[in-house]
Specification:
Blueprint lengths: L1 H11 L9 E11 L5 E7 L6 E2 L2 E2 L7 H13 L1 E18 L5 E16 L11 E5 H7 L3 H71 L3
Parallel strand pairs: 1-6
Antiparallel strand pairs: 1-2, 1-4, 2-3, 2-7, 5-6
Keywords: Hydrolase, Magnesium, Metal-binding
Protein name: NUDIX hydrolase
Pfam families: NUDIX
Length: 216
Amino acid sequence: MRSLKALAGALTGWSERNGEPRRQVGVLPLRTLPGGEMQVMLITSRETRRWVVPKGWPMKGLKNYEAAAREAYEEAGLIGRVGRRALGSYFYQKRLKSRDTVLCQVQVFRLEVRKQLKTWPEQHERDCRWFSVPDAAEAVTEAGLAALIRAAGADGAKAKAKVKAAAHAGSAAKDAVAKDASAREASAKRPAAKASTSRESGGKGSAAKGPAGRAP
């Protein structure tokens, strides 16, 4: 924790004398395209118009991941499956209405987006856009958030590779079964053909010997 605070201080100018950072919760909205590419949705902040993720203060009566999902709905109209374990956290300086700034630590949860609603509470207060993982990491100004985005992209690439490998293995197994079935069928046909030939030969031989066996 001390090293994390030291990093926050280096990035934001925060120090122990300023007190503990204020806690917030947020989501990293993700979707996977049919081709396997992962994308990240970012929204603009209302005060500075920089690219950020949906986030806000914890809500009474809701668990942190539930509050984070609620922020995703209110700020971007996103509906999906939210992870219950945080991906990590990052620090940033929040500008207050008084023009003062306060250091915040945002606990970030993964949100697998199913759909975006046609209307939502803050629809006309923010812009939102889908980015590729590299572009999203470049668009945000907080180094900690950029690191979380890149980590999520790396995990997505690993998952994609596993699915591809499993599909390849399944296809290979299917081909092996088909080849085995074809070999069994060919093997079953060969003895039947020999038996048929043998019966035909035996019949011809009996017919030839019949006249020779009768008395003149």
